Amino acid sequence: MTTLQAISLSHETASLEWRQALQLSKEEAADFMVHLKEQKLAEAVMVVTTCNRTEVYFESAGTPADVIQDELLQFKGIENKNAFAPLFKHFTRSEDSLHYLLEVGLGLRSQVLGDRQIIGQFKDSYQLTKDINLGGTLLHQALQTLFRTHKRVHNETSFRSGASSVGYAALERISDFIPRKEFSGKRMLIIGTGQMGTDVAKYATSFGFRDVVLTNRTDEKALTLAAKLGLQAIPFAERFDALATYDVIISCVSAGEQITAAQLGALQQENKRVLVDLSVPLSINPAAAQMPRITLINMDQITSRTEAVKKAREASISDVRHIVEEETAGFAHWLQDLPLYHSISELKAFFATVLESELQKHSNLQEGDAASKLAKATLDRLIRRPAGALRAADGTSREVLLQSLNQLFQIA
């Protein structure tokens, strides 16, 4: 029987050093998923890779989770697999995988509780899966359950109240080193305008920053966002040219050239400078932290400063978990009905074949759409009663009916 499984290495079990070794670019994620499909290790697969986690959700009838784990480590060129093994979590039952997926997608397992970015990251990951035709029935149902649950949490609880995300928390963290009242006189550079960089840029002005400059690998993307938010933009090729003129540098790009201490240069005045590295792998060389009057913050050092929001969200956790349990139960019920849906579909296909064959013998019905209308009406009537009986049955009775149906019509 095909099941939905998952493997995960995240901030819950692994530090930044370990996580960055398994970080996958979009191209790498696509290549890895295709590899699993070609090796017949997964019938459907989705990779979620963020600064805090690398996870693989997959459908298979016989591939154990540890095989997918080994394939991932091998794909990333990691030889010491035994060192990484304890850092992974495995979910091998469809219901357990769905339950975990919901907790992650809703932000229950994020470093910043209720992180708004994670649902968008799941949407992007699933879109990539669909773009390369690696989706499946279980995976599709799991993602639709996540999106529906996300709406329920938003509408039925206070878990989404306030603005709290990694980007927001990063800006809050800066105030530990530079008084917030001084933000308006500080110059900020945001490198990377993907989801994380965009989040930071949207909140920057509300925190009081007035001189904010954006840059991105795709210059047009930075220009578009800057125009939308009333900020400035510079070409990506020029991002290192004037680093010494920025009081705050927030880097949200990965797998690129690291900013070195030498490139940062020295500030003209006796000011403090704050560097925030939200990238995995790191995009600012750790040696920069040894420079005078510089503070370097990485992802693991960011904690939410929005205590009121945090308390409201914590108070709503029980409500969110109740919704998660309801949706997981619904998913489990859907799983039980899958054989039923399959048998009804096969029975209908069998009837359709018989009807088509018979209709071809009556040429007088081939004019217009009379034949198709007759076929559809007849099919609906033929399938209605057996489908109703199957839906009404449960447990052992349903299994007996399904086995009899499959054997009688030879549709299994």
UniProtKB/TrEMBL annotation:
Subunit structure: Homodimer.
Other comments on record: During catalysis, the active site Cys acts as a nucleophile attacking the alpha-carbonyl group of tRNA-bound glutamate with the formation of a thioester intermediate between enzyme and glutamate, and the concomitant release of tRNA(Glu). The thioester intermediate is finally reduced by direct hydride transfer from NADPH, to form the product GSA.
Enzymatic reactions: (S)-4-amino-5-oxopentanoate + tRNA(Glu) + NADP(+) = L-glutamyl-tRNA(Glu) + NADPH + H(+)
Domain notes: Possesses an unusual extended V-shaped dimeric structure with each monomer consisting of three distinct domains arranged along a curved 'spinal' alpha-helix. The N-terminal catalytic domain specifically recognizes the glutamate moiety of the substrate. The second domain is the NADPH-binding domain, and the third C-terminal domain is responsible for dimerization.
Entry EC no(s): 1.2.1.70
Domain Quinate/shikimate 5-dehydrogenase/glutamyl-tRNA reductase: 182-302
Keyword field: NADP, Oxidoreductase, Porphyrin biosynthesis
Binding sites annotated in the UniProt record for substrate: 50-53, 110, 115-117, 121
Protein's name in the database: Glutamyl-tRNA reductase
NCBIfam families: hemA
Keyword check for Zinc-finger: no
Domain Glutamyl-tRNA reductase N-terminal stretches: 7-157
Gene that encodes the chain: hemA
Domain Tetrapyrrole biosynthesis glutamyl-tRNA reductase dimerisation: 320-411
Recorded metabolic or biological pathway in which this protein acts: Porphyrin-containing compound metabolism; protoporphyrin-IX biosynthesis; 5-aminolevulinate from L-glutamyl-tRNA(Glu): step 1/2
Cited function: Catalyzes the NADPH-dependent reduction of glutamyl-tRNA(Glu) to glutamate 1-semialdehyde (GSA).
Catalytic machinery residues: 51 (nucleophile)
Coiled-coil blocks: none
Taxonomy of the source species: Bacteria, Pseudomonadati, Bacteroidota, Cytophagia, Cytophagales
Enzyme class: oxidoreductase
Any one GO molecular-function label of the UniProt entry: glutamyl-tRNA reductase activity
Family in the record: Belongs to the glutamyl-tRNA reductase family.
